[in-house]
Amino acid sequence: MWGGAMGRWEPGTGERLARAALDLFAEQGYGGTTVDRIAERAGLTKTTFFRHFPGKREVLFAGQEAHHRRFVEGIAAAPATATPLEAVGAALDAATAPVTRAQRAMGARLEAVVASTPELRERQAFKRAALAADLAAALRERGVLDPAASLAADLAVRAFTGAFSRWCRRGEARTLGEIARQELRELQIAMAALE
Amino acid sequence: MWGGAMGRWEPGTGERLARAALDLFAEQGYGGTTVDRIAERAGLTKTTFFRHFPGKREVLFAGQEAHHRRFVEGIAAAPATATPLEAVGAALDAATAPVTRAQRAMGARLEAVVASTPELRERQAFKRAALAADLAAALRERGVLDPAASLAADLAVRAFTGAFSRWCRRGEARTLGEIARQELRELQIAMAALE
DNA sequence: AACGTGATGGCACCGAGTCACGTCACCGCG
DNA sequence: CGCGGTGACGTGACTCGGTGCCATCACGTT
């Protein structure tokens, strides 16, 4: 069962828990699933669950720190001559490039669960607000003043989330980065038309 | 109706609970305050607390439904010839006019508590997202297409929250509505400068 | 005087989250 | 070979947010 010279415990405990959680949430809903039951399906216990995730909700949003960081660093890494919107575009490239197909596969299921659970939508709104705040700070670091920095950061988050949502739909052939770039262009056009 | 011989229970139960909660949150922090203690200070019990508020967090955000509604209706009530941004301006007027001095007095204390409690900031982010979504829907009702509707709605929420925050600071002599209008203008300028 | 009503208290219960402590394999070391 | 340290996990008790059911008791009504 533990092929070769593996450790004492099955590896990938956190991932097993996350999969069990997503499965159960899809089957019985978020509120109808207890942490005990998630741990049980993963062959573990409640205590171990909370050792791997700070809370029941976080099990679905785990592993986004890397994406968050790449997004923010993409702003800082943009050439110094870039305008705010060009920096946002560069950050979108940096953020979309490393996204894997596996994440696309989970995206649809995850979106369905989140959409049907106010508590999770709340968590998502907060994560996006936090990301936007960090992006705005990175833009201010480049000398962009408020409220332009906050606005540009909001455009970035909006373009990415919209693009990811479309990318997860079947029949979408384009690259995530391509969609994100187009979303940003459309936002820019709508913004210009607002006056 | 309650004159002379008052009723069996002290009136304003919900308000007493809300005041007790805000006091205790300011004294001991949000996480360090139990619902039992809030109810105790109000001379009531936990059960009664949950009869008046759907949750511990909601005690601070109670009474915002009316503001939310006026804001959204302000969009619909704008003249049919108004541009999206003009409709947003009209909605800001409709939303800011009925705000009382009492709400200003609580604003500062409330802001401090919310700022120091991630759980409450999360709730606030969600409420703002929900408001923005409703405003965007009202704009779409007027024929504004996405993503322009969402962007304009975001500007509205941003202008209001920024204005309210400034309005709560001491030494601020202007009207809430005036500040909101100026915030909107500044956002408009920053938006135009983004390209 | 009897009755219905409505806001409240009391109580049992569930689930999320925390904590202290025990367990057991693996690892390094003598 | 044995021995103690380490790290991941289990166990059980606990707190607290939140729900549901039933009892209470003043008030108004009939």
Automatic annotation (TrEMBL), chains A, B:
<dbReference type="GO" id="GO:0003700">
    <property type="term" value="F:DNA-binding transcription factor activity"/>
</dbReference>
<dbReference type="InterPro" id="IPR023772">
    <property type="entry name" value="DNA-bd_HTH_TetR-type_CS"/>
</dbReference>
<dbReference type="GO" id="GO:0000976">
    <property type="term" value="F:transcription cis-regulatory region binding"/>
</dbReference>
<dbReference type="InterPro" id="IPR001647">
    <property type="entry name" value="HTH_TetR"/>
</dbReference>
<dbReference type="InterPro" id="IPR050109">
    <property type="entry name" value="HTH-type_TetR-like_transc_reg"/>
</dbReference>
<feature type="DNA-binding region" description="H-T-H motif">
    <location>
        <begin position="34"/>
        <end position="53"/>
    </location>
</feature>
<protein>
    <submittedName>
        <fullName>Transcriptional regulator, TetR family</fullName>
    </submittedName>
</protein>
<dbReference type="InterPro" id="IPR009057">
    <property type="entry name" value="Homeodomain-like_sf"/>
</dbReference>
<dbReference type="Pfam" id="PF00440">
    <property type="entry name" value="TetR_N"/>
</dbReference>
<keyword id="KW-0238">DNA-binding</keyword>
<keyword id="KW-0805">Transcription regulation</keyword>
<feature type="domain" description="HTH tetR-type">
    <location>
        <begin position="11"/>
        <end position="71"/>
    </location>
</feature>
<keyword id="KW-0804">Transcription</keyword>
